[in-house]
Amino acid sequence: MKRKFDIAGCFLLFILISACTQNNQHDLGREEQKIITDTLVPITAVVKMVYIPGGEYKPFYGPDTLLVKVIPFVIDQRAVTNQEYLAFVTKNPQWRKSAIKPLYSDSNYLKDWPTDLQLPKNAKPNAPVCNVSWFAAKAYAKAVGKRLPTLDEWEFIAMADEITANARNKKNYSDAIIDLYLQKNRQYNEVKLSKPNYWGVYNMFDLIWEWTDDFNSILSTNDSRAGQYDDKELFCAGSATSSTDILNYAAFMRFALRTSIKAHYTIGNLGFRCAKDTAIKLN
Amino acid sequence: MKYILSSILFLFLLNSCKEVKKDRSALPPNSIFNLSSVWTNQDGIDLQLKDLPNKTLVVVMIYTTCKSACPILVSKMKAIEGKFTRKIKEDIALVLVSIDPKTDTPEKLKAFAKSNGMVGEQWIFLRSTEEATQEFANVLAMKYKKISPIDFSHSNIISVFSADGKLMSQEEGNIDVNKVVENVEKVTKY
Question: Could you give the number of structural domains in chain B?
């Protein structure tokens, strides 16, 4: 009899334990729905990627003699669009505007979207998505199995005009870009309406500013006019990177923007495109 | 008798369920404890930032093979620690996060801690993946760049976080130790 009780007791205990673990899982599930899981759900985006053979290039910022080697990579021929970003947040609730962690974005994230899953009124689905933070751009890239381009990769492509890979020494190269930069509300236009550059990459200058993976690697103070005095104290080994070589004003504008933004910032004409490593080496 | 025992067990189980729930929901939305990255400390133990002790956190990012500014940052962290009264010391943890996770293995971090006299439960060394490190640097708005296989350049920032993971203050550049101490005392008092 006593034994029976023991068995019954054990059984009861087992039921209770399993009830509790189940309950626990259930609670967690509910909580995750509220706090929302961090796990990224992969999505597919159909966008042509362009092969860039890389090579040595002289960065706009850095010691005079520095040549940076860019290894071959592939890059999206255009920026990520509103429509694609909508598909991303649909599958990934943690990146919707009502759910994004404040650490990952300021309050202007997807500012013009009326709700979590609705594009702004009048917004073209094929226009580049803007008002996204670096954290959000990075998550999107990961979800499509890619990454953000590095600053060097982006600037390497930016050297090209429509007919040459490196147009930096052409007289009107910078001026033409500056003209594009000065056009207002250009971020609302659709992608791929203008001509591609030498590599077949569209809209490097005429639509938006773009996030790069290591935008925060430019070691100058917010106000470069402050000169060399601050730099050494602000940065470990700062002297290695602070001397400037500004070849053109358009590039300088991009670098000025990059040094002034932080990863959680969102800006009305700042979007991104994705890149990827490649094993292919063509000459 | 069995029923009483079972009831007690039942209550106990219920309670333990409850605790799991309580812990998480209390975080402020802008707390760094919301980051889900996994880190390893100098003892080789894996943890998330929310597992850090419930104390005011003084955080700096360094790498152990650095020969220029990091030694200064490290000595400043020690100076900060030395300025606290014994009472407040119990409520503070000093966290050194590696920006060179490839080189700075837990063993290296431990040896570094030892050789710099940063031993004790108040000293925490962390390293993670390059991705999580980059994310964390961006949360701190820290600039860094790998300038050669062995060298990084980075901004010098000492950040103070409240016990629930909110960024309370940052000192940048030529850091005034007294100011950091002042900030920590303010945060710890509430």
Answer: 1
